Amino acid sequence: MRVLVVEDERSISGFVRQGLSEAGLLVTVEEDGAGGLRRALSGEFDIVLLDIMLPGLNGLEVLRRLRASGVTTPVLLLTARDDVEDRVAGLDAGADDYLTKPFAFAELLARVRALLRRPPLQQDDVLRAGELELDVRRRSVHAGSIELHLSAREFTLLEYLLRHPGQVLTRTQLGEAVWGLDFEHDSNVVDVYIGYLRRKLALSEAAPSIRTVRGAGYVLTVEAE
């Protein structure tokens, strides 16, 4: 998962970057509002950590412009302001969560993980990759003319892969997305379920493949194995 941190206090951005990187996330830091807005508009990040008091554009204006542009990336506001009015202003501008400085890193990480597990604001009910079709409402999966019968975990895992096509997803990302707080990071459960999915996808030549990226994770590709 990619995280954008927009924070002009280098002691804080450095602390956050180190902690999130050690948690397996890819972190980019911008130190002013204009740079943060430009980066966030690219759509390449899964979550934005945004300070309110920034040089140039302040965080609330950055947030308003993001939402006005249709960007629905989760935004966690980081700020020294603790007044109720400030929290309301941030949430009204489109923030998904709010954390007041100083904060414990454990709480920040928990909030980041909670936002990353949250489904996008706008989701398609039917997801496709090649001739593979997953219907979220009907809980059905078809690969060409073949219906694939998946367990609840397999279905959720495949749905997450389909929502991130072509993106290398780590075992931690997949585990937390599918098992949530029950995920044990030293477990091989993700690898086991990837194996289950591969065997079922192999029933149809029309299905995409799940490719292993050594040392990184897994990626869903549109080419059949």
In short:
The chain is α/β, with parallel strands linked by helices and 225 residues long. The protein has helices at 10-22, 33-41, 59-68, 84-92, 105-117, 152-162, 171-179, 189-201, and strands at residues 2-6, 26-30, 47-51, 75-79, 97-100, 126-129, 132-135, 140-143, 146-148, 209-213, 217-221.
User: How many β-strand runs?
Assistant: 11
CATH secondary-structure class of the largest domain = Alpha Beta
The residue ranges in which pLDDT falls below 50 over 5 or more consecutive positions are: none
Order of helices and strands: EHEHEHEHEHEEEEHHHEE
The oligomeric state is: single chain
Overall mean pLDDT? 86
User: Termini, distance in Å?
Assistant: 26 Å
Please name the CATH architecture of the largest domain.
3-Layer(aba) Sandwich
What's the domain count?
Answer: 2
Overall shape: elongated
Order of neighbouring strands in the sheet with most strands: 2-1-3-4-5
Strand percentage lies at 15-25%
CATH H-level homologous superfamily name of the largest domain: Response regulator
Gyration radius (Cα, Å) is 19 Å
Q: How much helix, percentage-wise, in residues?
A: 25-40%
CATH topology of the largest domain: Rossmann fold
Largest sheet: 5 strands, parallel
Structural class: alpha/beta
- With helices defined by DSSP (H or I, 4 residues minimum), what is the helix count? 8
